[in-house]
Design goal:
By secondary structure, the protein is an alpha/beta fold. It has 10 helices and 7 strands. A 7-stranded parallel beta sheet has the order 3-2-1-4-5-6-7, sandwiched between helices. The N and C termini lie far apart (48 Å).
Length: 259
């Protein structure tokens, strides 16, 4: 699918990857871009820059996702591409509080469910539509320091796989964006914790957005701005136990380096 002349919604569009996607879609000639974010002022700033439309939306709340979809349909008549991009990070393991586990589950998993629940009917009626989920390489490879993040990203990947399996023959195209380090606020937060292992190969959000446009054009399910992620994922599939040993070594080395 080409982005030109399409109506596109981007959640988490006020900054980072979402902002870069909105800008890149505008450059590609999208008919309309709806920038959605819990930060309404930030969404408005991006929308004004690209000639788009801003809607405040907390994607963890189904009623706000439904409102986003309804306002877009009222204003533009359809949604061609929905980029379910908003996400958060939570560090730690089982000791992370129940409220933090629930918060990241709602944002990183249930938001995609809410989007599909409200966007799919219109797409299925038209027998055409594209859903892009920003997942992360953690969905494929886990995260050595952040169980809530790794778990929710794996769940999100599984949900988008299900959508592709179930609706791929009905005109619905699905992609998962799975980058490693990207120079966003999330990566900066990891660096402040002394977890600097993704910085060396980190990409600018604009580089990621460029890969996304190409991935949508080619209708690729996995969009991998860091090609090495495919190699790592292949190693995991070939020998799970060896991969787990390697991840334990990586975690130990990173902990030693951060002390």
């Amino acid at each position: 699918m080409e982005v030109a002349d399409r109506v596109v919604v981007v959640t988490g569009g006020a900054r980072g990857i979402g902002r870069a996607l909105a800008r890149r879609f505008a450059h590609a000639g999208a008919e309309a871009i709806i920038v959605a974010d819990a930060d309404g002022d930030g969404a408005w700033t991006v929308a004004r820059e690209i000639g788009g439309m801003a809607i405040r939306c907390d994607v963890s709340r189904e009623e706000e996702v439904a409102d986003l979809v309804n306002k877009t349909l009222t204003a533009k008549g359809r949604i061609d591409i929905f980029c379910s991009n908003a996400g958060i990070a939570v560090d730690g393991g089982p000791e992370a509080t129940t409220s933090e586990w629930q918060r990241i589950w709602d944002v990183n998993v249930m938001s995609h469910v809410f989007v599909a629940r409200h966007v799919l009917p219109g797409m299925l009626d038209r027998k055409e539509g594209y859903m892009l989920g920003t997942v992360s390489a953690a969905g494929l490879l886990n995260h050595v320091f952040a169980a809530p993040y790794g778990v929710t990203k794996a769940a999100a990947l599984s949900f988008f796989e299900w959508l592709a399996i179930t609706h791929g023959d009905e005109g619905i195209r699905v992609s998962c964006l799975c980058p490693q380090g990207v120079k966003t606020d999330m990566l900066a937060a990891e660096r402040r914790l002394g977890l600097d292992f993704l910085t060396a190969g980190a990409l600018e959000p604009e580089q990621v957005a460029e890969v996304v446009v190409e991935g949508i054009r080619n209708e690729k399910f996995l969009i991998l701005p860091h090609p090495e992620v495919a190699e790592y994922f292949n190693r995991k599939a070939q020998d799970y136990d060896r991969w787990l040993r390697g991840m334990r070594r990586l975690r130990a080395n990173l902990l030693a380096a951060s002390r």
